[in-house]
Write a structure and sequence with these properties.
398 residues; alpha/beta; Rossmann fold; 6-stranded parallel β-sheet; 17 strands; elongated
């Protein structure tokens, strides 16, 4: 377990102003929240603070306004959505620092929630300016970081603020960090990883770290196209990352050295474009005008066999173009198999990354995983073994 400071559940925080950093960076369409998993995930923490009669002051960012007040990136619609979840009016304030904010934070009744405006409307947030972090800290008596997905950023509301206020890890963040740490230190063997995504270069650090700790690495999605091409097969019009041959060679050799089974698709589903019907093909039958959009039945069977033998599984990256019904079968079947084995108590399953979470939600299997992380960059960086500024700021020095 990583030693990071947690708030004692028995500690009396009635009437205390709890400055809660969350990640409400959710998709909006004409001011309507279209995907709510990040909001829903933090609800237990908010409700617990309400029950403990704290004054809850929530801070978050949304999008990349780059220090400019951008009306379409206001957090106001999220206050409305949050109000419906909490069955109380969440007060929204169009500011995040200053005398008025401090005054309002003190005035809200115990058990009530105040949401402050998008932190990234201020340049000082991303620049981690000390004076801004200090001003932000004045809005609370204690600070809780419940935004693991932002904790790889050295931003004022994530790391700088902890110098000026008594700071703690939220329960969700604490669990998430320790699940990932468990994966790379003392996971129950055999351990397998299913990894996808479009660019292999962005995940080389993760792969290099995991190869030493896993019995099998299963490569799917667009990332697998690189390996298929490297092995001499035609991938048609499929996406691949150019000039990565040395990287692919390095990964292949590292797997051999560490006795880690590198598993690639044996068959795939191809189509002429994303609006066409898909056809299963073995790798030697792919035509020049084919587009690889999913894994085939033999590959699904192979992956299912590995899941069956595994005691711990990590999944980051869907198996295909899951957003379209025609090409979601591979991801669906992986999700269902992991879910079944997790529920039968034989498997510890951790999934992470936005697309992976969306694929799991689409499959209807979100209740069948040991832990699902909505984080992307922070999830991968911790897997890579990097030190995250937001976590470092909460570590207990002994």
């Amino acid at each position: 377990m990583l030693k990071i400071k947690q708030l004692n559940n028995n500690q009396n925080i009635e009437g205390k102003r709890v400055l809660l950093r969350v990640d409400f960076n959710v998709p909006l369409n004409d001011g309507i929240v279209t995907e709510t998993s990040r909001i829903e995930k933090v609800l237990p923490t908010i409700k617990s603070l309400i029950n403990r009669k704290a004054k809850i002051i929530i801070i978050s960012h949304l999008g990349r306004p780059k220090g400019v007040i951008t009306p379409k990136l206001t957090l106001k619609p999220i206050a409305k959505k949050l109000s419906s979840y909490l069955s109380q009016d969440v007060v929204f304030l169009e500011e995040n620092v200053g005398k008025n904010v401090i005054k309002k934070s003190k005035e809200i009744p115990n058990g009530k929630v105040l949401l402050l405006e998008n932190l990234r409307f201020c340049n000082e947030e991303e620049l981690n300016v000390a004076s801004f972090a200090k001003e932000l800290s004045k809005n609370g008596d204690i600070y809780i970081n419940e935004a693991f997905s932002c904790s790889h950023r050295a931003h004022a509301s994530v790391s700088g603020i902890t110098k000026y206020i008594d700071s703690f890890a939220g329960e969700m963040l604490f669990k998430e960090v320790n699940f990932i740490k468990m994966l790379t230190s003392n996971a129950k063997k055999p351990v397998a990883c299913i990894i996808g995504g479009s660019k292999i270069s962005t995940k080389i650090g993760v792969l290099s770290n995991l190869i030493k700790k896993m019995e099998a690495i299963i490569v799917v999605g667009a990332m697998a196209n690189n390996f298929i091409k490297y092995k001499g097969y035609n991938i048609g019009k499929s996406f691949f990352e150019k000039n990565q041959e040395n990287l692919l060679k390095k990964i292949t050799e590292k797997c051999k050295t560490n006795n880690c089974d590198l598993v690639l698709p044996e068959d795939v589903i191809v189509a002429k474009d994303i609006n066409s019907k898909g056809h299963i093909k073995t790798l030697d039958k792919i035509d020049d005008d084919d587009l690889i959009l999913d894994i085939g039945e033999k590959t699904v069977e192979k992956i299912s066999e590995i899941i069956e033998k595994s005691k711990t599984i990590l999944w980051n990256g869907p198996a295909g173009y899951f957003e379209i019904e025609e090409f979601c079968s591979g991801s669906n079947k992986i999700a269902k198999k992991i879910s079944e084995n997790t529920k039968s108590k034989s498997l510890t399953s951790i999934a992470g990354g936005g697309d992976t979470v969306a694929a799991i939600n689409k499959s209807g299997c979100s209740d069948g995983f040991t832990y699902i992380s909505t984080a992307g960059g922070a999830f991968l960086e911790l897997l890579e073994g990097k030190i995250l500024p937001g976590i470092k700021a909460l570590e207990i020095n002994e």
